[in-house]
């Protein structure tokens, strides 16, 4: 049989040496761009194309179908609309167009025929001509392409085969191959080496950035230490760490052995009210503490303050296994079974969403961060976040605290610097958590994606307090799934600059990028790679997309969170009144205690500063939740009475206030169900239909009981817990105080008349066509009559 053209091209490409590949890329670059209308990257090679293809647009893109040409290269699947402007040859290349997807981001390839659907792999054989091609991506996108009747059948078959055989399933070695394909050309390496980082962007890879942060926050009594410059004290810590000014490096050197992996308490942020936020790993208990060691340990724990609160995150926060399991369940719910395209029934969608526990983990992170933020506002103390390894949940909570408390961290530059400081330089295991090399499934967990979801929840509740938009967070979420950026490719700064056991290469910084270094005993390799930072948005997105990443900041009024129906404003201080100088307290589950084993060197009643036991605890959560006490202290702290308004952005945590990130997780849901035929414009997601059904059922029950709510009832402050800061209405009604009465028999329910669509309330907004959906899901407590006409189901 005759092999297709793309297969012979691919086999020739594989047989070439690396230098020949680069030369071949250069020769094909101009030809592919001029002949097919695709703006290729330097050295990019087109393997196959198909004409007269329609791409299904998501709701964010406006819906409908877009006609154009589909391409498969050795790096991406690209789609060029037929009415797109001619590419500018002088413009800088963009890695991915608005309608493109990288091969490394593809998880499954599905071909849809007249009467069947097939999951296509590298070893599959198609016995039908695809009418539709569906690409499931790791970032939860679903790209749907429909072949026209005039599309040549050979093109439809061959581009399906080309994508299935060239996309890179995650396995050892596949990521390096993809990186070489994307960044390995001579032209691309030259292009990246000439790029300069943003001068205003703080990467926190030099002492000047840390000094600038100390000056910006107004922190005093702290200094930047270079004792870990060669990573000899702690391999996972950065070169520069902020420690108390009164502790010399010679004294500091003795304290590393007292903490897990040598991750000593380090300064993170200074609150305007005078408190300081620190983070550390757990203490090493089986170490003898010398007198000098105790003095140095006390100095770095207390800093310039006399009281300290340790917030232990190991017991209360979700584990890596919990986060990975919840995210896996969420993906399965949002996308359905990929091979069968099955989805959860509409009447079970919301309950299945809650059973994933993903939203529970978000609430837990937001609640703990709000506790710490309010505690810091009390003023004049150190708050230490403690985690066994100090590389996962400490990153989440410390970052959320600063987003809530520091308006600068809600700007684009401030947020990017925050991620650099609390994630990249702090040693979050990006490579292990993404598990690109598939070498340790036990360490895989989307901790960073959980943090982005938490930030989105804050943004959704009060978007005017942020300079960046939801589109920016979505772009950052998608970039985290693309193994091309130095930001997400390593576990710590040492791996970015030295050889490690986990990576066969070593890396050194070059103009904000990271270059693959040549071993000392070898000559310079012309194929060394440059991994750009993710913050080079011009390399990833078009100017039209980047404009949507930011918005003007407005000085809106403060937003007070409502957690349990009211905010306690009693003037009783939350702080234990028996605290003495040198006292250390533990904040756990909203309560304070002072256990004797909190600091190992004090467990035997030794020296090291004045210390008094304190077993005074905050009231139980049933009478006065610890978080509400902290919020009360946040509003009434005497040290901040001079401020015109609180700067904290505290979250609302009630069930309907924390919702699913629809623009991220549900953007591919309709496309996943759009097999064989274009979906009509009036198609809704199951959540939209459930919102209609619950609203209509509520109206019927209210009418039968004679208690239909008044539509124009004036709003009372802090009563409707479903009304967020932006005036949005949630699915569940606000609680009312009413006299208990027996429910009426279901047979007495009046027939439902179509209601005015403009007066109905949906979970995510009104339906596109404005027509009522007459399908109903019965409430769990409702007993339906078997008589005709009394059923609540359509």
TrEMBL record:
It comes from the Eukaryota. GO terms for cellular component: cytoplasm; membrane. Residues 784-794 have a biased composition (Basic residues). Residues 204-665 form the Myotubularin phosphatase domain. CDD domains: PH-GRAM_MTMR11, PTP-MTMR11. InterPro entries: MTMR12-like_C, Myotubularin, Myotubularin-like_Pase_dom, PH-like_dom_sf, Prot-tyrosine_phosphatase-like. GO terms for biological process: phosphatidylinositol dephosphorylation. Pfam families: 3-PAP, Myotub-related. Residues 603-623, 745-794 are annotated as: Disordered. Belongs to the protein-tyrosine phosphatase family. Non-receptor class myotubularin subfamily. This is Myotubularin related protein 11. It comes from Paramormyrops kingsleyae.
